[in-house]
Design brief:
With 262 residues, the protein is an alpha/beta fold. It has one domain: 3-Layer(aba) Sandwich (Rossmann fold), CATH 3.40.50. The chain is built from nine helices and seven strands, in the order H-E-H-E-H-E-H-E-H-E-H-H-E-H-H-E. The chain has a seven-stranded parallel beta sheet, sandwiched between helices. Helix 2 (31-42) runs parallel beside helix 3 (56-69), helix 2 crosses helix 9 and helix 4 runs parallel beside helix 5 (120-148). It is globular and about 50 Å long. It starts with a helix and ends in a 5-residue tail after the last strand.
Length: 262
């Protein structure tokens, strides 16, 4: 009973397990990224909240979230596939001279198409957004973390990277590349105090489900032990844990958050 109560307190942010830590989260406007902003702020983290473009709704949302939780949220708006814009963002991080304790690479796109119907252009777009931009941004941010001799990198992959789902050849391949990259990062950067892990969400209730037929959603839900969809908060809570000191001896791992998908 004590353990159960403790878990509830952590996920609701009552222990503030990220208090005074500074974390970068990509793809914060909606879905899992937006849930991460809420979870990290509730646990005391200051956040560089990335979005591809700035708009009044996003800026207002971030300001209100920061005030509600008593933290700082700094919008960081640029297209991850624009190398020049990325370099400017990294320069901003350097000039701010704040220690960076976590990077959560959440931004990504999905594609549902059979292998024989997947074009080279679509395949390249999947890798450009889901892998190459993540690789480049992580490379730059990890150099800043290495100077501090600390940091936690959390990459969002997918169960599609491991399960070989039909219609997910391009998407799954891009996310499998993310898992392989994460394992290499963990090996190379561990001696500098940087940890790197992956989260592989299963079927999660976000707007990405709009691209799937209802019959596929229902069938996948029924293949989980819990017989339900995951929520963005389920993924966000796992990311909070992996960035926190509670996970200080966990690195090079891929954690499936999939409700027991079989």
């Amino acid at each position: 009973m004590i353990l159960k109560d403790t878990v509830v307190l952590v996920t609701k942010g009552l222990f503030m397990i990220l208090k005074d830590k500074n974390v970068i989260i990509t793809g914060c406007k909606r879905g899992i990224g937006r849930a991460m902003v809420e979870a990290f702020a509730a646990n005391g983290a200051n956040i560089y909240a990335h979005a591809r473009s700035a708009d009044d709704d996003f800026l207002t949302d971030m300001a209100q979230t920061a005030e509600r939780h008593g933290v700082q949220i700094w919008p960081l708006c640029f297209d991850l596939t624009d190398s020049a814009a990325m370099k400017l963002a990294v320069k901003q991080l350097m000039s701010d001279k704040r220690p960076l304790h976590g990077l959560v690479n959440n931004a990504g796109i999905t594609l549902n198409a059979l292998f024989q119907m997947t074009t080279e252009q679509a395949l390249r777009q999947q890798f450009e957004v889901n892998f190459f931009s993540l690789f480049n941004f992580t490379q730059s941010v990890s150099k800043l973390m290495a100077r501090q001799k600390q940091g936690s990198i959390v990459n969002i992959a997918s169960t599609a990277a491991q399960d070989g789902n039909a219609g997910k050849s391009a998407y799954g391949a891009s996310k499998a590349a993310v898992i392989a990259l994460t394992e290499s990062i963990a090996t190379e950067l561990g001696e500098t105090g940087i940890r790197a892990n992956c989260i592989a969400p299963g079927i999660t209730d976000t707007d990405m489900l709009e691209t799937l037929p209802p019959a596929i959603i229902d069938a996948t839900r029924n293949q989980t032990d819990l017989r339900r969809l995951g929520t963005p908060a389920n993924i966000a809570d796992t990311a909070v844990f992996l960035v926190s000191d509670l996970a200080s001896y966990i690195t090079g791992q891929t954690i499936r958050v999939d409700g027991g998908l079989r």
